[in-house]
## 1
Amino acid sequence: MNRLRQISHAAGLLWLLVFAAYTVRDEVSNPALWRESPPQGADGNMLEDRRFSDIRRALPDHGLVGYVSDVDLSSAPSNTRWVVAQYHLAPVVLVSQNPGSSSPDPRLQWGIADCADPSAAAMVARSAGFAMVKDFGGGVWLLHRESK
């Protein structure tokens, strides 16, 4: 009976390893996906913290804030940008306002642009109904809702 238990544990561990390898296969084998993720340094968390620290002080203390990006957030690797931004800007809650995802939400008076290509920030902000307020560098912009 002990031998049967060892075999079942080994089989379970093997299944777990195969599943884990299959799950990360696409991200590891496709360097193009890496470029869509936020930049990482020796300490990626510290780098992202610096990237968002100044804009965090410019945002409201809490509430909903629009989030726009030039990266399609519908895929898991790209969605990492939004998750990282949300982590560093909490307790503010980021609401995606990317072009094509939904119509601009007029309740969102403030927003941020988090762009892989900083030159795209103005276009994605305008298409979501925001005006550019301040460039915080690294593709991060403070936005405010345009009044109509």
## 2
Amino acid sequence: MRWFSQRYAVRAGIIAALVGMTSCAPRAVETLPEPRFKPQAVVQRKPLVPPAASVVPPAAAHRAAPAPKHATPAPALADSRAWQPAAQSRPWQWIVIHHSATPAGGAVAFDRMHRDKGWDELGYHFVIGNGTDTRDGQVEVGPRWVHQKWGAHTKTPDNRFNDYGIGICLVGNFEVERPSAAQMQSLVRLVAFLQRTYHIPGDRILGHKDAKPTDCPGKNLSIAQVRRQAGDLLAGSPTPYLAAQPAAQPAAQPAAHRELLRDH
């Protein structure tokens, strides 16, 4: 009887254990409930790319810079009207041509040299530059011409070449060199203008040495050529147009030069 009770108790324990395991096991979930939130859309961000550096084309890199707006203008040119004096004209009868016998110079330099000699001012009426103190062929109009004042360039006992002679000086020493083509062109045009305006005949176009003993204006300046070319210019037209001439402008302050001319 005891044996039966023990067996019965063992079986009952096994059955109780099985029932307990069944009650503790988790229940299987067949499906998950629907989510209660809306998922946010994922935005694809583009990677940041630095801007490309500007590239200057090779041609543009070496392109010349534009000219300044206020560039210094070139010196003005004046025609033969610059040679017409405002004052009442003197009764001119002669044209006397000189050289400065110096390698350089201009109206300002010669004015100072003449004043150093005790003269009142520049002795010539016109000075034609050689490219040193003034441009090559530039005609400078002296104050004597502006005021129609007697000259101080060819002194003789009767002083007629100063009183009634127009003095023209070309810068240079034409004992050792020739006047430039620009100087000769300006000289011929100026002489033709003076001849026409003051009715001066060709035989009264003189070199300094034609009026008195001197080497001026040098052996390499032909007065005969000047007479011929001025005559040809006048013969070409009753009122020849004398082409543009460099404007009469003061020269820069030059160094002092030696001058052979000593007439007053």
